[in-house]
Specification:
With about 700 residues, the protein is α+β, with helices and mostly antiparallel strands. The protein is about 20% helix and about 20% strand. It folds into three domains: about 10-155, Immunoglobulin-like, CATH 2.60.40; about 175-285 and about 325-585, TIM Barrel (Alpha-Beta Barrel); about 595-700, Immunoglobulin-like (Sandwich), CATH 2.60.40.1180. It is elongated and about 90 Å long.
Length: about 700
């Protein structure tokens, strides 16, 4: 373990020794003598390393990197070590009309910084141009921004004891993803020490781990934890960037989630979750950065090499904005693609994470000629990333940006088609049986190609972006006034319903109806093929008071309200998870195609009309709201796994009698009567309104799945 060196004094600064160093690895790398710096810039004329006092307030010296190998500037500074605060300054042309925005008056964050100290202090000094000038961003600012920019911290080996930790590599059919926010999950939990609420250590607490394991969660997907900033317009409104989709340092954990400022706290979290059998998936934002458009701040990439890091419009002055955030990273550039790949490998190798969910992943595939495969090719051939889970949010806001089903294996994809069709079915929309059927089978019309498994579909009803489950059944319209955007932000097509009253109500009939629909929706999620993703808090009825875009609500709106937990809904969700594990046919790798199985000739899937027959083509397009399905092991399964067939009824309409398929059946679960025990049934069963009913054969009721 490398010991941090003493604070820099004038005497020590005078004795610092500069040598050429090496062009690799990138960023600040510690050795016994000092620190090697390597920085990419294809168009700079000089790169300086600026060393600061321990509190980051005083710039002590500037040292120009003495060597350049291709586009990598590098140098070794002997006499400094772990704990040193630093930033970068880049000299070069300030020609926005040609894509260049160099300004050495602006302190820059090292793109490869392993740790960030401090936060952005919003000031006009952060802008590379002179704010208020009639020339706009063509003007040049001479104000120094160092006081307003977080400082990079040199990080050496921390000697962390992983205690033999190894990747869990949970198979797709066993996976249950729980999407959560570090602070939102922990901020109000009474079982977490107050000092650890809102931190990685809070996520690693006994209380949270016990909750996750009780739900059968196998992977927690954390909203962005790479260092990000609070947007200026939010700060001016007294708000914060709660979700974290404004990344500024792709190698650094977000400081606000550290209890004592030690990055090893993230490792502690991963180690503890792994010991509980829970994988860690990070929501990562490589499609854009926090610098925004040409009128945004110069914090890092813009000042180091704007023309290389960002995708620019043909006029070179303006930015392509396929992400809706002002800029888009240029992954078609080798150095930018390398940075993203280095970052991914870093989080796997240094922090032992198990996978990534790529925000606006379609933007990562854009290049000079539309959708290029550079990023996809790079990530698919990488030996380090070959074993981790890769999940795409398969769209961006640019032209032709909706790419659901277009990502290759091994990518999995957020399935918004599943979300909308399941919501519409339970809302009672007409002619939704075909949509529901496709959703229940993991959308084979989208994903069943090129050898992709059914687990390519990540099924979600809710996520951080949109209504919570409780709000989905309590609000017809979004209520985002607290965001300060006149309720114009957020989705308007929510496929939601308030069941008779907008927002909270004490009406017992409405309360009962809402609870029933929540249970039916959750049962649909757990009884569908594909990988289910549960939004943290949905299992206890958490509400955001109708806000379906709580990106700026770092408060009670955005946090899970543990003290108001719906204990009955939690117990029901746990039971659904148990049943999914118990009856393996509900979670298979292979798609179901109603094909005969070699072993017994039975079809692996049969649809069932409530009248006791196979539905006709006309039935699928009729205005009915009830369908049953018999699910068996896939005909494509190579061996008999001892899986038992199940019969599931989905009834979004009024109560209706369902004639059961031939054979002896036991009602395992009725979402309308969640406390009912398993019970043998006769030839018919009356499915209550807004209910999901699961049946199995008697010989399956005493056997538990693994």
């Amino acid at each position: 373990m490398t010991v941090p060196r003493p604070s820099l004094t004038p005497e020590r600064i005078a004795r610092l020794e500069l040598s050429p160093g090496q062009s690799w690895p990138m960023g600040a790398s510690v050795d016994e003598a000092g620190v090697n710096f390597a920085v990419f810039s294809a168009h700079a004329t000089k790169i300086e390393v600026c060393l600061f006092s321990d509190d980051g307030r005083t710039e002590l010296t500037r040292i120009a990197l003495p060597e350049r190998d291709g586009d990598i500037w590098h140098g070794h500074i002997a006499g400094i070590g772990p704990g040193a605060r630093y930033g970068l300054r880049a000299h070069g042309p300030y020609e926005p009309e040609n894509g260049h925005r160099f300004n050495p008056n602006k302190l820059l964050i090292d793109p490869y910084a392993r740790k960030i100290d401090g936060k952005v202090r919003w000031s006009k000094a952060l802008m590379g141009y002179h704010v208020g000038s009639p020339l706009g961003d063509l003007s040049f600012s001479t104000r120094d921004s160092a006081f307003a920019v977080p400082k990079c911290v040199v990080v050496g080996p921390d000697g962390f004891d992983w205690q033999g930790d190894k990747p869990l590599a949970r198979p797709g059919p066993e996976t249950l993803i729980y999407e959560a926010h570090v602070k939102g999950l922990t901020a109000t939990h009474p079982g977490i020490e107050p000092s650890r609420r809102g931190t990685f250590r809070g996520v690693a607490s006994d209380a949270i781990i016990e909750h996750l394991t009780s739900l059968g969660v196998t992977a927690i997907e954390l909203l962005p934890v790479q260092a990000f900033i609070d947007d200026r317009f939010l700060v001016e409104r007294g708000l914060r960037n709660y979700w974290g989709y404004q990344t500024i340092a792709f190698f650094s954990p977000e400081p606000r989630y550290l209890d004592h400022g030690d990055t090893a706290e993230f490792k502690e979290m991963v180690r503890r979750l792994h010991k509980a059998g829970i994988e860690v998936i990070l929501d990562v934002v490589y499609n854009h950065t926090a610098e925004g458009d040409g009128f945004g701040p110069t914090l890092s990439f813009r000042g180091l090499d704007n023309a290389a890091y960002y995708r620019l419009a043909p006029d070179r002055r303006h930015y392509i904005n396929d992400c809706g955030t002002g800029n888009a990273l240029n992954l078609a550039h080798p150095a930018v693609l390398r940075m993203v790949m280095d970052s991914l490998r870093f989080w796997v190798e240094e922090y032992h994470v198990d996978g990534f969910r790529f925000d606006l992943a379609a933007a990562l595939t854009r290049g000079g000629h539309g959708f290029d495969s550079g990023f996809l090719d790079a990530i698919r051939q990488d030996p380090v990333l070959a074993r981790v889970k890769l999940i795409a949010e398969p769209w961006d806001v640019g032209p032709g940006g909706y790419r659901l089903g277009h990502f290759p294996h091994p990518f999995r994809e957020w399935n918004d088609r599943y979300r909308d069709d399941v919501r519409a079915f339970w809302r009672g929309d007409a002619h939704m049986l075909p949509g529901l059927a496709k959703a229940l089978l993991a959308s084979p019309e989208i994903f069943d190609r090129d050898g992709r498994p059914a687990t390519a579909s990540v099924n979600l009803i809710t996520s951080h972006d949109g209504f919570t489950l409780a709000d989905l059944v309590a609000y017809k319209d979004k209520h985002n006034e607290a965001n300060g955007e006149g309720n114009r932000d957020g989705h308007s097509a929510n496929f939601s319903d308030n069941l008779g009253h907008e927002g909270p109500t004490a009406d017992p009939l409405i309360v009962k109806a809402r609870a029933r629909r929540q249970r039916a929706i959750l049962a649909t999620l757990f009884f569908s093929q594909g990988i289910p993703m549960l939004l943290g808090g949905d299992e206890i009825g958490n509400s955001q008071r109708g806000n379906n875009n709580a990106y700026a609500q770092d408060n009670e709106t955005g946090w899970i309200e543990w003290k108001k937990a719906d204990i009955d809904l939690l117990a029901f969700t746990r039971r659904l998870s148990d049943l999914r594990r118990r009856f393996k046919v509900l979670s298979q790798r292979n798609f179901l195609h109603s094909r005969p199985r070699p072993a017994d000739g039975l079809l692996d899937l049969e649809w069932w009309h409530p009248d006791g027959r196979a539905p006709s083509d006309a039935d699928w397009h009729d205005h009915i709201h009830t369908i049953g399905m018999i699910v068996r092991g896939s005909a494509e399964t190579l061996k008999d796994l001892g899986e038992h067939e199940v019969f599931v009824v989905f009834n979004a309409g009024h109560a209706r009698e369902v004639i059961l398929p031939p054979g002896d059946w036991v009602r395992i679960l009725d979402s309308a009567n969640p406390d009912s025990d398993e019970k043998p049934v006769s030839d018919a069963y009356k499915a209550a309104e807004q209910s999901v009913v699961l049946f199995a054969h008697p010989d399956a009721t005493t056997q538990e799945g693994s």
